[in-house]
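Data availability (excerpt). The following record was deposited with the supplementary files.
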Amino acid sequence: MFPPEDADALRRRNRELTILKAIAEALNASVELEESLSVTLGLVAEWSGLRTGWVWLLDPVTAEPILAAARDLPPGLADHPHRMEGWCYCLRTFRDGDLRGAANVNVLTCSRLQWLEEGTEGLRFHASVPLYAHGRKVGVLNVASTEWRELSPEELRLLHTVGDMLGIAVERARLYERSILAGALEERNRLAREIHDTLAQGLSAIALRLDTVDALLESGQDGERVEALVAEALEITRANLEETRRTVLDLRAAPLEGRTLADALRELVAANPMAQLAVDGAGRPLPARIEVGLFRIAQELLSNVSHHASAHSVQVRLHANTESLTLTVEDDGTGFDPAARAADRFGLTGINERVRLMGGSLAIDSAPGAGTRVSVVVPL
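Predicted structure:
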């Protein structure tokens, strides 16, 4: 049997671990900041017996405070949102130094409640817990009370552990948001490249032929030349229509649609009569961003071969080992000088951007009349 004091300490420690487990599960359940912070505030309030709480976050760009979550604000604050804007004593202390002097629910009156005559429901005092992520200031967690109360060392330790967990959760959510924005920007850039390299060029070719037709008609030239140019314009128009449909289809469906990268490449290659695929060791699941990135690169390279290389055959190879994944696309087309390629050739520029985002490397081996070999190596 444990002595009474040891049994009490064990029960207290078990309760702390239960609370931390519940908070960790809440923070891991969603990358939506507001939802995670609200659930955490509820758990902290339940544990501490302090009904009201709120979380301030510092804007990562402007460093201005933002009310990110709140629980059971008194009417004096809830009905007057402007009172929960801007800086307060605790936030200024956090910005300028630390919050060690405001760690307890102590005699420090909340500056947002201090001068209110009514609507506070008796709330006056609060504890302020700093939120950090990797040493960077993230924000402040406040829990409020109607009376002065000194938290025990164990309660303070637990509250600061919760603060550390919140800081990391905020950083994770912001990284996730930035990755989503980067993905959207990457996809917009891909569309810009595809439109420039296909639709824009096709429309320019159509306009050139129709201008020639107009000039021939004005000069009274023979109809056979006019008919030939109109036929060419119609053929280019149909090709551009098909390209437009392909682009729209790419937008409507996820690139891999639940398939592995190898399966998606097989279907992509099967649609190209002159292409062949070899896969070695790439059957295991891979990170989604790498699978989608390499699929888009293969798609872009095969499109470049079709539109620019005048090739008779193209070999696509996917090789994986424990350390890296290599995608190679090699054709027997006209080739080009990589050092002298046009600055507005968005296809290879976009591929290079994708490779860089995956932390990989790109190698282009080509020469006029000697075909082209493009290799992408991505570390796993």
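Summary of structural features: Strands lie at 52-58, 65-71, 125-133, 136-145, 275-280, 314-320, 324-331, 361-366, 372-379.
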